[in-house]
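Dear Dr. H.,

I hope your travels went smoothly. While you were away I took the liberty of generating a structure for the chain from your last submission, since the lab meeting agenda had it listed for discussion. I wanted you to have the full record in hand beforehand rather than looking at slides cold. The sequence, exactly as received, is reproduced here:
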Amino acid sequence: MTFPMRDDNAEPKKRIFLVDDHPLVRESLTSLINQQPDLLVIGEAAELHGALAAIVASRAEIVIVDISLADGSGLELIKSMRALVPDAQSIVLSMHDERVYAERAIRAGARGYVMKSESTKRIIVGIRDVLQGKLAVSQSISNLFAERFTGGGRESSSSAVESLSDRELEIFDLLGRGVETRQIATVLNISIKTVQAYCARIKQKLKLGTAAELLREAIRQREGQ
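The corresponding predicted structure, in token form, is as follows:
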């Protein structure tokens, strides 16, 4: 009986971990990534809770994470990874507008930002870019970073939403997804009064007068993505 010879010199596959609350997205990504000869999905999570421990246990080299998760923001996971598992690199794959989120994702510790509206092949290109030590962002975002680095870009944002802090933006996004104040407090493990204080600051920054206006704007922003 003949057995195929094992190539002991073959490079081990790069280990990829997925964090996204949509099963179809995870299934599609797993299929796409596992078709690559040098990449392998070794774990996945649907929620922020428990994801970090699973990433550590899996010894993932690349973590692909969505911004909006059922129990919080992917930005918080990226920040935790940066502190606890700095060798694991993260790439954001999200429907959220890169003009609002890409820079803050990179500041949080991500090495790339890919929008879900792009070609599926773009995430593979992004993974390979990050493995080579590059930043995986679109050309327009790369140009923006270059302008700011050289002092040619404006420091202020083109949208009032970009002026929101990470936590304010997280709450604004949850409002747009139809999550009520009490539920937001539970998801983020903060008090209702704290959520209300954040909402007040968001209204002030976006120049909105009432809670109803805030809700309408949050929904409008989400539907526009």
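Two observations you may find useful: The chain has two domains: 14-149, 160-223. The CA atoms of residues 13 and 38 lie 5 Å apart.

With kind regards,
E. W.
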